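ZP: hey, is the nickel (II) ion complex queued? I don't see it on the tracker
AM: it wasn't, my bad. submitting now with these inputs:
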Amino acid sequence: MTLPPTDADRLIADRRDLHEHPELGFQETRTAGIVAERLGTQGYDVRTEVGKTGVVADRGREGGRCVLVRADMDGLPVQEATDLPFKSRHPGRMHACGHDGHVAIGLEVARRLADAPLPGRVKLAFQPAEEINGGAAAMIEDGVLDAPTVNAAFGLHLWANLPTGKIAISEGPVMAAVDLFEIQIIGRGGHAGHPHQTIDPIVTAAQLTSALQTIVSRRRDPFEEGVVSVTHVRAGEAYNVVPDRAFLRGTVRSYGGRFYEEAPKLVERTARGICETFGARCEIDYRRLSGPVVNDGKMSAVMRAAAVAAVGSGGVVTGVRSMGGEDMAHFLSAVPGCFAFVGSAPADRPTSPHHSPTFDIDERALTIGADLLTATVLGYLSS
Ligand code: NI
């Protein structure tokens, strides 16, 4: 099948335009408008407001299998600190994770496949609100995987920890399950000079913060991946008053398995035990935000073949994994698929990490990403 060649200039122009106009989760109306307009004129069946601000477009032959390509659209509440000529025009908002590139890549995949005689159907899902963990579930709720029924799903993340020219594809879990916990410690307030008349929630919170770290170091099988981070502690105002409450918030990351199953119970027991030791009470809210991103074996092979076509066998690596979360997990727990990391670290300058105010991508990675997903769609539909 002959497709129009990948248009690097168009990819870069699209990415820069999106970069100038970042939008936060479930507010991606400008981005969604561009996507819907562009794909509509290319002959796709376009549905908007799928998962609030999400857009879905599909085309191809009836009756064949249907493959979904997912691109996330949202930016972050970060003040951009780059000197790029196309830096964010919106104070306090930035495409600091590369989702501008993901949308540009999705548009280019759509353009290249717009006139192709596909042996099945391709469905492009432009997803809102990945960063705040709600967009994928909202799209699935609104039927993105139905009519036509999706048989496989693929996606990618531009990756600053991997040099441009490399694509990482691994079977099994590649990104972590994200859990959130919030613990309210209820003590008894009083005079800082009379601590014996109080139940000090700050000392309790300090002990609990340390004790939560022992879940990973002492309670988890060392061969299982796991992280517990306390990221928010709040208590007290005055220097001479013991407050009556303290608040902790944090996250547990895992790759599924036993640690994932046991984590809620371990956090709760540790909190209750420590609080009881100090005579305090606690209220615990433990939530599962997204499961691990798990790549299917067969679908990884399909995507690996496409990756070899895009960057050669020397460019394809395995074993890149992250304890970050990705709500692509929702798609991959519903249908088999694969999520790849596409290297976007330039060789000639240092890279800033994802979510930092100086994050940037090597734009050559856009072409690689578009080639990868286009070849994955064709490879899957003709396999
Ligand atoms: Ni991201």
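AM: back. The chain has two domains: 8-175+292-382, 177-290.
ZP: great, adding it to the tracker
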